[in-house]
């Protein structure tokens, strides 16, 4: 297992916005990029009674995102993702070299 630093936030804060919760519940959203580390692989979280498991966590440059990555985030395109992120975070600049934690997850299958 990869060595990860200490988490910067609780896993329950990974996905909070109602539209993103709905996208995860529908299967459209399978990734969440965050400035901090919110979860480790194998950890679970619950959205509206549905359990999800974090499958991978990677450190990546925000500038390496593709349209496919933005779609896995629940957005139609990278341009829309970027536009919305900049609107949500006042005074933020898009820095291609900025590093983010990519939390990949899937719906937990019942045993």
Describe the structure.
By secondary structure, the chain is of the alpha+beta class. The protein has one domain (11-107): Sulfate adenylyltransferase (Roll), CATH 3.10.400.10. The chain is 23% helix and 26% strand. The chain is built from 3 helices and 4 strands. It has a 4-stranded antiparallel sheet with strand order 1-4-3-2. The longest helix is centred in the last third of the chain and has 11 residues, at 78-88. The two termini are 24 Å apart. It comes from Methylomonas rapida. InterPro entries: PUA-like_sf (IPR015947). This is ASCH domain-containing protein.
Tell me the helix content: 10-25%
Helix/strand structural class = alpha+beta
Low-confidence stretches: none
CATH class type: Alpha Beta
Our count of domains comes out at 1
Query: Strand order, biggest sheet?
Result: 1-4-3-2
Tell me the number of strands: 4
Task: Write the CATH homologous superfamily.
Answer: Sulfate adenylyltransferase
* Strand/helix succession: HEEEHHE
The fold-level CATH name is Sulfate adenylyltransferase
Q: What is the 3D form?
A: globular
Strand content: 25-35%
- Taking all Cα atoms into account, the compactness measure Rg is 14 Å
Which architecture would the CATH scheme give at its second level? Roll
Helix segment tally:
3
